[in-house]
Amino acid sequence: VSTKTLLTFDTVQIETMRFCRTAITAALFVASVSAFSFSGSNGRNVAPAFTTTSRVSSLGMTSTLSDSEVVTEAEDAFTPMRPPIDLPWDKVTSQLVDAFGYSPEEVSAYSDALDNDKEALLKLYKALEMARGFENACNQQYMQGKIRGFMHLDNGQESIPGLVDYAIKNGDKKYSYYREHTHAIASGVDPGAVMAELFMKEGGTCKGAGGSMHIFDKETYFQGGWALVAEQLPYAGGAAKSILLDRALGISDDENIEKQNVAPPADDDRISIVFCGEGGSQNGRMAELLNSAAKDNLPLLMLVIDNGRAINTFTPDIATNSNVYEQGKHYGVPGLLVDGLNAGDVAKAGKAVIDYVRSGKGPAILQVHTYRFNGHSPADPEHERGRKEEKMWARAEQDPIKKFEATYIEKGVFTAEELKAARKEVLAEVKASVKFADESPMPPESLAKELEYPDAVDTDYNLKTPPAFADEVNARTISPEQMATITTHIEALQEKARAGDISIGDAINLAIHEEMLRDPTTTIHAEDLQAGSSYDIPKLTQQTYGQIRAADEIIDEGHFIGKALGEGMNGYRPIVELMNTNFGIYGMAELSSAGNTFATTGGQFDMPMTIIGAGGTAPNQALGAEHSQPFHAYVMGIPGLKIGTAASPDAAYGLTKSMIRDNGPCFLFAPVKMMKESKGTVDLGKCMPLNKAALLHEASQQTVDRGHAVTVLTYLHGVKESLASIEAIQEEGFDIDLIELRSLKPLDMDTIATSLARTNKLCILDESTKSGGVGATISARVSEELFDLLDAPVKRLCMDDAPVPYASSMEKAVVKRGEDLVQGVFDLCTGEY
Q: Which of 78, 370, 784, 789 has the largest count of CB atoms under 10 Å?
């Protein structure tokens, strides 16, 4: 029936099988075969006929089979679900000529530059062997239990790190996905540090905080390692934008990778490169990135690693067109397809594409057709159809290392002994990386809490100094006319603030302008930005600072929150204005990663990002369910995120300034129905703490002595409702300590405890749902930490779990208001509750 045969493949024992003709025919009958040949007239992939004639000998592999046992009979022929592509160099040349505008002579020069340079070829070979050897070592260490969690290996795709080693520079920004070990090492990251990170050791790239899927290295600008499929795409777009910002502002990174008042060199040709699989490239983030990259002419390379498998699923089963390199046509972004089997061609053609981006002509796509020799992860059962058979076939027929050896030995460039010596040298380095990881200590337990926030929760932001270069950068980037206009605008708002006539929206706008002038690395992203959005928060930003610092964005918050993240990792302080905070639902992945980044990178990368928007749910809001969601409660569980609320112009102004100066991600919620109606004075120039609540009204001592006082915690519209209810509460003989929760996270337990020590009763007027809401979190903490101060259970006046209706008659049953607070205080003070 079938015979098992043992092959030796790069020191790994592989079991392979001869396939029964009937079984193969049945499998192929079910399979839909597709490959990356050039598209036919209907735009669909045309799969060429392909038959394997030999498993081993064509690649010069060592085998335990005798020559007579190497079968080539028809009954043993294997046709993979996804055949290889026939893409000789002349077809690569024609693509570079047609899509990128190169002349045949220029393309030939790229070919000659590598093929005629033995030293460069040897370096490329070592990069291939390092990738293979390191991943083999990872597999061994994983099986020994030294590497934990998820791990994704890159065997078979070595031509990609080979290209990185050959053509990508240290200063280029690199964004990879969860299969990034080899990309990091090819970028110059120390293999020992990468291995130690996998071993969860303190000597790892991220001190053991990141792990296999989160390799980061600030010195080499290797910026991830991102675990959510395709999330890295907008981050790389933001990193590319940071390169343009450096050039526009005339600033650059110093030796500590901090911004300095030195312009990038005239020949600055840095680019941002993002790695993504062809499965992940079907994500909508790719279309958004292509649009913004083309619109802003970003120096961005999208490198698509096309192994035909979305995890393990055969990609053509779920994607109509996997020719990702053609996706840019509608945006004017050229693309190139190359065969990952030929590492030399990938390096030569890849460098031509990279140089196209470096030259300032705009973004480009490079798609590398390859095969992955391993499953999605070592623990993967690989039940998807055709995967195991394809993997064995690919190991025999699509090995880029064996192809490289065969090609350049045949050409007389290398002898087998020379390549064997190079391989031995590389494997010694791999062995040393394992030894380093083994000997590195585990990180201390205390490090976890230290990595929660870049800035301590009690930071005084008034003491932070602005960049020394602020005035010089402003002088060369803001015209005298623009400066006169914005100065007049700021002075008018400041006058309103002194007179008590400034709104919440205007107070935030004032804070933003003061901070953007104070620190020119501050940027802003928003929809309708030129028009001031809905509440004038970004008003006059683009008119003053230009599109480079004040960007109008497409209608997808995830996209521009992601771009802001990329800017934040590269020395800038982005502000993201959400027209309505509920729109941030589109950006949950990006918000989550923003909160995690400082910790995940072992504290290497700060994440200064301020997200501001109007939200919450007011009584009689009449906005319906989608615009009335408690998004502030949704994001409470994101680690590393500081969350504030502001129900007055003074709070909005002071918190905005502090958040912009904070080195971590902050989210400010303002009350959507009070943005223009709530007016007051502002303490100009003052930053507020990000960890403090505010006592807005204190209960009289007489009511406290009688046990008729209640601590009331609220925020957003609840502040207005509570203030309006105080008189009615007092008429009943009761009173309240009214505390505005200006910091939802971290929570100011000290202020709450001080009040409860007086009142011993707590009522929470909560603008979120009963299940999973803000009030639920506060109630739990009070019960756990301050239980001895309570004379009664905590009373929660929260939104019902039902969606918020549009009709006010129904909405009243869901959203709590002032009258509910009056009743709640009565119940607590009379023992009815």
A: 370
